[in-house]
Amino acid sequence: MTAANDALLAETRLGAFPAERLTQYESSYRASGGAKALADYCVARDAQIVFSPALRGNLIWAQYDLAADRSFNEFQFILCRRVLPEFGTTLRRRALQLFADSLSPFGILSVDAPDDLQSAPMSLQFQAVSQEHGLYRRIV
């Protein structure tokens, strides 16, 4: 664990994002199968949008070692940003297989670059929801 990772994890736990991103996030949410408006789950506070405490209470935020750890739960959504592009091919494939093993059927995986998943052997287990945004649904 590094201080930068700890700070990012603490910031993420707040469940807030800049208000100007709401339209973009709403589009991604709808593309992933969201039925309601994203705004139904948040409130505007200053220049930020904050997810409701009820929603945040259902989320697990954890630091994870993709090189050594195994699947420890079944998830409906896995977000992995700013990491996979730094990995070599072997570690990237290991991480993507770990995500496939950890996602429930029809769960959503969010990664940085569209090509992170396309070149991996387990890519057949996923269907692009929004390739531009790196959103994939587990189908197998």
The run of helices and strands is HEHEEHEHEHEE
Give the overall shape, derived from the CA principal axes.
globular
User: Which class do the helix and strand fractions yield?
Assistant: alpha+beta
Low-confidence stretches: none
Radius of gyration: 15 Å
Please tell me about this protein's structure.
The protein is an alpha+beta fold and 140 residues long. The protein folds into two domains: 3-56, no CATH class; 75-138. The protein is 31% helix and 25% strand. A four-stranded mixed β-sheet has the order 4-5-7-6. A hairpin with a 4-residue loop joins strand 6 and strand 7. The relative contact order is 0.14.
Give a quick precis of the structure.
The protein has 140 residues and is of the alpha+beta class.
Indicate the topology.
Elements: H1 3-13, E1 16-18, H2 22-31, E2 42-45, E3 48-51, H3 53-56, E4 75-80, H4 89-102, E5 103-111, H5 115-118, E6 126-130, E7 135-138
Parallel strand pairs: 4-5
Antiparallel strand pairs: 1-3, 2-3, 5-7, 6-7
